[in-house]
Design goal:
Strands 1-2 form a two-stranded antiparallel sheet. Strands 3-4 form a two-stranded antiparallel ribbon. Helix 3 (about 60-65) runs antiparallel to helix 4 (about 70-85). The protein is an alpha+beta fold. The chain has helices at about 5-10, 20-30, 60-65, 70-85, and strands at about 35-40, 50, 90-95, 120. A hairpin with a 6-residue loop joins strand 1 and strand 2 (about 50). The structure holds zinc ion (2 copies). One zinc ion binds near residues 42, 47, 49, 95 and 115.
């Protein structure tokens, strides 16, 4: 299975893909916090994304998990959400770029789906 990061390699045209990638998670984790915020270029699609430690919830991960058809991908997202909720040292991060990546679920309309990547990263120190 191709790692989702290799599939795009910063290519803005890549399709929405919520398959878990440890490399994506590690790259987002490595980006510095500025207070409660991270602003970085998504390690997969290359678009600007943000993480807000104060506002980060696992809702977006669960929503994506419920919307995907592949059971293994959905299970990985559910595991990820559970891991974040069980550990005070972790917060959820997901690509929330404003660019339309084809293949994402259609609802809710106001959701910024990004390119589908999500992970658990360490809280700001
Ligand atoms: Zn993007
Ligand atoms: Zn992205």
């Amino acid at each position: 299975v191709t790692d989702p990061v290799d599939e795009c390699n910063g290519d803005a045209e890549c399709k929405w893909n919520p398959q878990y990638s440890r490399r994506w998670e590690e790259a987002v984790d490595a980006a510095p916090w500025d207070g409660e915020m991270k602003i970085l270029d998504c390690p997969r699609c290359g678009h600007r994304m943000t993480v807000d430690a104060g506002a980060a919830t696992t809702d977006a991960l669960r929503e994506a998990g419920e919307a995907v058809e592949e059971p293994a991908v959905a299970a990985a997202l559910e595991d990820l959400a559970g891991r974040i909720e069980d550990d005070d040292e972790l917060v959820g991060a997901h690509c929330n770029c404003r660019i339309e990546h084809t293949g994402h679920p259609t609802k809710p309309d106001d959701r910024r789906w990004g390119c589908g990547q999500a992970g658990a990263i360490r809280v700001p120190k």
